[in-house]
Amino acid sequence: MPKSGAIPILLVEDNPDLAANIADYLEARGYLVDVAMDGVTGLHLAVSQPHDVIVLDLMLPGIDGLTLCRRLRQDARSDVPVLMLTARTTLDDKAAGYSEGADDYLVKPFELRELDMRLRALLRRGRSSESLRQLKVGDLQFDLDTLTVERAGRTISLTAVSLRILELLMKRSPSVVRRHDIEQAVWGDSPPDSDALRVHMHTLRSAIDVDGLPPLLLTVRGIGYQLKAPDAPAA
Questions:
Q1: Quick check: bond before 174 cis, omega within 30?
Q2: What is the phi/psi pair of residue 25, to 5°?
Q3: Which among 9, 38, 54, 107 is least surrounded, fewest beta carbons within 10 Å?
Q4: Is 124 helix (H, G, I), strand (E, B) or coil?
Q5: How far apart are CA 177 and CA 169, in angstroms?
Q6: pLDDT digits (tens, 9 = 90+) for 87-104
Q7: Which residue segments constitute the domains of the chain, with CATH numbers given?
Q8: Do residues 167 and 144 make contact, with C-beta atoms less than 8 angstroms apart?
Q9: What pTM was estimated for this model as a whole?
């Protein structure tokens, strides 16, 4: 049974001794390691099993690391962080890895402690990026990937314009966003007549500030609009 809270990672490395050393070291530090000894198996595990990060050797039988990474990014549309291992040290070699979608690069030979530190840095970056795709103000939530908006557990249907306005207001919350900034974000340099924004703001307010719930969308007269949780401090 895997330990609760273990970090699932995939190690694709064809050197059995090195793979065993890496796996033993990482498992002792809270990782749950799947190991593939060739590129074909590695690609299969990468697309069929959930992993938080992938450690990928460059020189592999079957499918090399560059091809595997490219197929993972382009074909499988995977954004799992990839740390590439290689004995190649030139800048061109590193550039090739990054161009195919690698997130970090570690040159052999390396210290296992450094591998652990780099993996944890990638994990922090990945979690930070994921959190940026989930906006939350009070009990209002906006998933930027699925464009799903919910308040107090109720799904809210919004137009494309309302979604763009809401995204801006939530990202700036609890700051006041000027009318001009909203118009620029929605219409660029060609905003419609002056009443258009007012109409869209009324529609957005009617959707998110329903009866029985404290208002979140506030009008700051002569300036713009503010999206703020009832208990948030003043901007």
A1: yes
A2: -65, -45
A3: 107
A4: helix
A5: 7
A6: 877 778 778 888 888 899
A7: 7-131 (3.40.50.2300), 134-227 (1.10.10.10)
A8: yes
A9: 0.56
